[in-house]
Please model this.
Amino acid sequence: MKKFLIAATALTAAFAATAGAASAAPYDGRYRDVAYERSNINRQQDNIAMRIDQGQRNGGLTNREARMLRVELNDISRLEVRYRRDGLSRWERNDLDRRLDVLSQRVRFDRRDGDRRGYDGDGRGYDGRGRF
Model:
């Protein structure tokens, strides 16, 4: 029993020394869970792209609105690529989140702002205000 306790104590001390050395490494502000952060950002971008496509299909977004929203989404994607070259800092991650949140709100607003393009059933388009 005594040998078991000595071995367990030695093993615990070895793990503590290893953990202490790992935690003593300097933190440079970069996120380490790259797979999670990439999937989260990509999920947000995919969700916004899907909502833009859906809004254009059902008439909630005009072609011009959809085009402008896609341009902004592409700008954010290019910015993400630039940020990722040396790893995302906390500030860069927050900046991307903020930009995606603002774009998501713009999609929501533009889909509900009333300047719709739909069809009256006979193939003629109308603008949602009773005009053709």
Remarks:
- Strands lie at 118-119, 125-126.
- The two ends are 91 Å apart (CA to CA).
